[in-house]
Amino acid sequence: MNQSFGCAVTAHLLAADRFGRWLILRTSRDHSRWQLPGGRAHAGESPRLAAAREAREETGLDLPVGEMLIGAWVPGSPGRRDRMALLFATRTLTPADMDVITLQRREVDAWCMAPPSAESLPAHPLLAERLSVFCRRGPGQFIEQRPFRGQ
């Protein structure tokens, strides 16, 4: 948890292939939910470094962190801290990248390239909302989200 913001900070990468499909990962602990590469920032770690580190840990890919696509404030719910969630762009994935993806099985146990539609992704509702806003409005958005009861 990143104490410098007084809240948890998560950072993810939106990695797409040349066809525009998004790289999504299935969480090991909940097979009904998929996520983008990324995760929680450590204390003192910048969101950009966290996104790159988490993506490398989860997929084995060294992906550069580009522009911020969307930021979201998620107020805490019972038992959960307030959270700042950031989504960054990265480079286009190549067929060679697909050949070397190596999953960190403790956190993710499957991956796929999904059509770029937030509505059809089996993602957490808060992530789906952020992706939907990005798809409708483009990069550089900031939204405030309501806590999801099923977190």
The arrangement of helices and strands along the chain is EEEEHEEHEHE
Rg from alpha-carbon coordinates: 14 Å
**The CATH class:** Alpha Beta
CATH superfamily: Nucleoside Triphosphate Pyrophosphohydrolase
Shape: globular
Oligomer: single chain
Reconstruct the topology from this structure.
Blueprint: E1 8-14, E2 22-27, E3 34-35, E4 38-40, H1 47-59, E5 68-74, E6 83-89, H2 95-100, E7 108-114, H3 125-137, E8 141-144
Parallel strand pairs: 1-6, 5-8
Antiparallel strand pairs: 1-4, 2-3, 2-7, 5-6
Summarize the structure in short.
This protein has 151 residues and is α/β, with parallel strands linked by helices. It has helices spanning 47-59, 95-100, 125-137; strands at 8-14, 22-27, 34-35, 38-40, 68-74, 83-89, 108-114, 141-144. The chain contains three helices and eight strands.
